[in-house]
Amino acid sequence: MAAIAAAISLSLTSSTRRSLSSINTFRSSSFSLQQNTPRLITAVGNNLRSSMSIEAPDKTSQTSFLDRKESGFLHFVKYHGVGNDFIMVDNRDSMEPRITPEQAVKLCDRNFGIGADGVIFAMPGINGTDYTMRIFNSDGSEPEMCGNGMRCFAKFIAELDKLRGKQSFTVHTGAGLIVPEIQDDEKVRVDMGEPILKASDVPTKLPANKDLSVVKSELDVDGVTWNVTCVSMGNPHCITFGTKGSQNLQVDELNLAEIGPKFEHHEMFPARTNTEFVQVLSHSHLKMRVWERGAGATLACGTGACAVVIAAVLEGRAGRSCTVDLPGGPLEIEWREEGNRVYMTGPAEVVFYGSVPL
């Protein structure tokens, strides 16, 4: 997808909230985008008073935008990884996030803000790493790590440091050391590390039933018994392939908004949990929907896709190398027996560039 460079001015105060979605009302306007020729769209109405400068991306405009340092403004780049979208912030000059969790909630609002699943900060590395990644979810909570966000982080760093070609970084996260690598085809492969299977470390209060792990265990959720496997990829995941006695879960038929929060806040998960509902298409092809802790239903979850393959292997449903279909697109996941490490490969793409007054 071609990137769109845009400068967006939004207010964080409730008295001047602007809805980005209202721009859809101007689709009937006839305009064209010429390479390297900016066009200005100005819309004034009851719900929208904003100006957006849209231009085809080029090296000069991107570099100059990312170098802006005006005080009182947050300059950002919106990225997405198979639909999981993030507001990326250059925070390399400080270990203190440039915005608060409360501001992140407002920025992530899809009606009154920029719209995103989270805000990611690129920070200085610690303990010998190249960089540090922190993230605030759309509800203001802070997860340990985010797989799709890590791919976006790698592409963002390459853009900030003007790097080209195949690149690899070491990144400190709340889940430990993560190593993303930009491939020659511009996809990003991430060494996600070793999965955590010990029940108390996931964490879950469900009793271990296989080598200190919870594998295909029964979990009562609002009177319905689900078979679940619990995995941590630095953040907790509960994976289910269906209810007790069911054959093959049809994930498109789920009412995720109803069932997801019941898993997330279940008493068996003291740190809450991400939940993946999985349909087996073949021994190497899985389909999932996810309810993310702190973000709700999202189009993709990288750590969740990794956890799904691990659970599928533990339950004897799939092999160690799988394509995982998420609502936002596919990810390639490999759980290598040698070294016990998990690798995730997928895209990360720019959506637009923007500025917001703080």
Automatic annotation (TrEMBL):
Its EC number is 5.1.1.7. InterPro entries: DAP_epimerase_AS, DAP_epimerase_DapF. Gene3D superfamilies: Diaminopimelate Epimerase, Chain A, domain 1. It catalyses: (2S,6S)-2,6-diaminopimelate = meso-2,6-diaminopimelate. SUPFAM superfamilies: Diaminopimelate epimerase-like (SSF54506). Coiled coil: none annotated. The keyword Acyltransferase does not apply. Belongs to the diaminopimelate epimerase family. This is diaminopimelate epimerase. The lineage of its organism: Eukaryota, Viridiplantae, Streptophyta, Embryophyta, Tracheophyta.
